[in-house]
Design goal:
Layout: H1 3-14, H2 19-26, H3 30-38, H4 47-60, H5 65-71, H6 100-158, H7 164-176, H8 185-189, E1 207-213, E2 217-225, E3 229-234, E4 238-244, E5 249-255, E6 260-264, E7 270-275, E8 281-285, E9 288-290, E10 299-307
Helix pairs in contact: 4-5
């Protein structure tokens, strides 16, 4: 076993990761991971992949990939030594003959402008016909209205004037009517004013409080919250496992730099979060950022959710 392989294996064991978990994080087969730990680089598929596999393995256990390659540059094969395999010659394609569908499409493209012009002319003619019909209807309506007004005015002029007796009687009737009494002010004062409704007390604000912590473990309690939403933003590569109280795995993958994930865990009473590289992942609960220690890089966080009543 080489010094490089021994160092990677010790780092993996310190983080409590099995070779299967490293395979799930890096997507590298177990036999290649064993070959890296034992220094059997001839079992790997070429020098380029050897360097790439070692870099991914180092980042998965918390090292800086580029710095790790430079530190063991004398031990790792050079990528320039790889000779690409010759590619098989491409089959010559016969020049394609114009198909019937292409000729039909060309004919259609030549006829289409003429059809478009005909449709445009028909549309303009229909618009002119509609405007003319609307004008005729408006003229007929105006003429009908004027005739009705003339008939009303002639009826008013031809009507006979009222007799003097009718005028005097109507005057007496008007004088005999008594003015209506105005409502009394006392009645208005008797109206009761509507009772004021009691103001509702404001709902308590959401609170996220750390209730327990150690070197690599933290416990938070979420209270007075209607939902339980966890958002993860990766500023670098890191393995992430987010599991609910129901054993449902919401996130179980290696997040690449720039990727973010949002999960709704409102149906869970609690959840656990395991970060393979805590400096590379920002954690938010219901939009509020959670402060997670950077050392050691592997962190385990527990969230207890108490939904607002």
């Amino acid at each position: 076993m080489t010094e490089l392989g021994q160092r990677l294996k010790e780092a993996r064991n310190d983080k409590g990761l099995s070779i299967e978990e490293i395979q799930s994080i890096t997507k590298i087969q177990k036999r290649y991971l064993h070959a890296i730990e034992e220094g059997n680089y001839e079992l790997l598929p070429g020098n380029f992949y050897t360097r790439a596999f070692i870099k991914n393995y180092a980042e998965a256990v918390g090292f800086n990939g580029e710095e790790f390659l430079e530190e063991y540059a004398s031990e790792i094969p050079k990528a320039s030594a790889d000779v690409p395999e010759s590619l098989p010659p491409r089959k010559m394609r016969r020049p394609s003959q114009p198909s019937k569908s292409s000729s039909a499409s060309s004919k259609w493209s030549s006829v289409f402008p003429s059809i478009l012009v005909i449709l445009l002319i028909v549309g303009v003619a229909a618009l002119i016909w509609y405007v003319v019909q609307s004008g005729d209807q408006t003229t007929n309506q105006n003429a009908t209205t004027n005739q009705a007004e003339e008939q009303i005015s002639s009826d008013e002029n031809s009507g006979s004037a009222p007799d003097s007796d009718e005028v005097s009687n109507s005057g007496n009737d008007a004088s005999s009517e008594k003015p209506e009494e105005e409502p009394k002010e006392d009645e208005e004062k008797e109206k009761e004013e509507p009772a004021e409704e009691p103001e509702e007390e404001p709902a308590p604000e959401m609170e996220i409080k750390k209730v327990d912590s150690s070197a690599d473990r933290s416990t938070y309690e979420i209270t007075n919250a209607e939902k339980f939403e966890v958002k993860l933003e990766a500023s670098g590569s890191s393995w992430v496992a987010l599991t609910g109280d129901s054993d449902k795995k919401y996130v179980y993958e290696s997040l690449a730099k720039g990727k973010d994930v949002t999960e709704d865990l409102s149906s869970e009473a609690s959840a656990t979060l395991r970060l393979g590289s805590s400096p590379n992942v920002a954690v938010f609960v219901n939009g509020e950022k959670i402060k997670i220690p950077k050392e050691p890089v592997v962190q385990n966080v527990t969230f207890n959710f108490k939904k607002a009543e």
